[in-house]
Inverse folding.
C-alpha cells in the first residue's frame, strides 16, 4: 500500500471517530430506525461506513446517556427488531453538535482559503 493511501485511510478513520455520534443523531432525527436499517444508511455514504461491532456498543452508550430511546417492535411474522429514536435530550445534543460542527467547518474553510496574516499575534495574558 502506498504511504499516501495509508495516510488517507488513517485520516478517514479519525474523522469517522470524531463525528460518529453526530452522524448517528442526525440519521435518527425525526424517525425511528432499527439497527440494520441505520447501518445500511451509514453504508450509503463513503465516510460513514462502520461495522456492527462499532454501531451497537455506541447505540447502547447513547441509550445509557439518555439521548436515544429503543423499543422492540414486531411486524407480522418477522422477528422483533429494536428501533431507535432521539429523545428530547438527543434533540438538544444534536442541535449543540450541529452548531459546533458548522462553526468548525467554517473555521477550517476560512483557513483553507485565507490562512491569515504572516505574523500571528500572541494571545493576551490574563
Amino acid at each position: 500500500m502506498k504511504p499516501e493511501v495509508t495516510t488517507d485511510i488513517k485520516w478517514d478513520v479519525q474523522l469517522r471517530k470524531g463525528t460518529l455520534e453526530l452522524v448517528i443523531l442526525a440519521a435518527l432525527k425525526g424517525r425511528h430506525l432499527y439497527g440494520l436499517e441505520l447501518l445500511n444508511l451509514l453504508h450509503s455514504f463513503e465516510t460513514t461506513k462502520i461495522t456492527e461491532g462499532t454501531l451497537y456498543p455506541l447505540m447502547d452508550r447513547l441509550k445509557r446517556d439518555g439521548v436515544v430511546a429503543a423499543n422492540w417492535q414486531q411486524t407480522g411474522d418477522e422477528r422483533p427488531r429494536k428501533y431507535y429514536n432521539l429523545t428530547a435530550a438527543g434533540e438538544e445534543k444534536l442541535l449543540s453538535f450541529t452548531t459546533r460542527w458548522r462553526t468548525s467547518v467554517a473555521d477550517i474553510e476560512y483557513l483553507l482559503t485565507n490562512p491569515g496574516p504572516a505574523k500571528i499575534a500572541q494571545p493576551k495574558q490574563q
In short: The longest strand covers residues 68-73. Residues 120 and 126 are 18 Å apart (CA to CA). The chain has a mean pLDDT of 90. The helical segments are 3-28, 35-43, 52-64, 88-113.
